[in-house]
Amino acid sequence: FSSFIDEVRLNMDIRRSSLNSADVRYFVPFLKGYNESFWLSGQVTGTISELKGRNIELTYGDKTEFNCDFDLSGLPDIENTFIFLEVNDFRSIPGDVEQISIPGRGNIVIPEPIRKLGIVSFEGTFTGFTTDFVTYGKISTAKGLISTDISMRPEGKGDKFLIRGLMKGTEIDLGSITGNNSLLGKM
What we know:
Order of helices and strands: HEEEEEHEEHEEEEH
Radius of gyration: 18 Å
Strand content: over 45%
Oligomer: single chain
Distance between the termini: 59 Å
Largest sheet: 9 strands, antiparallel
Shape: globular
């Protein structure tokens, strides 16, 4: 077990199982301090340092569902792990997100304009590192559709990031979202 991360091969077929974030901290160290429960299923193979997941399904709260495939290279050092994440389907509601408690900061608060979006869904890909990645996909809401092709990279020191790319909105109802129907009707 002295070389567990690089030499022990995993071949897991996870059937719908209830997990807590504390259960997976060894494999995903950035979950330290979180105490969230969720349901998980899918296939995970490879070593910890070269991990692959297929047909991963995660459910949380009342209506949050996440279905993906992933390849991770470099764990357990999450900051230097190359990530390829194909999101087949992600959907959530504000109430589920607000149940999540960030260690040292409390529960996430969703601003009212975002709450008006209703169920938010995403399908697409993330490629790169946690702080330097490209995302391509579609975000669907009750108030419109947004297509993305964006890169995010750190800029200088601190918590500043440079975001470049394209976002295209279709049938965005800005008036309803902002509460200013007279100026920003459906586009």
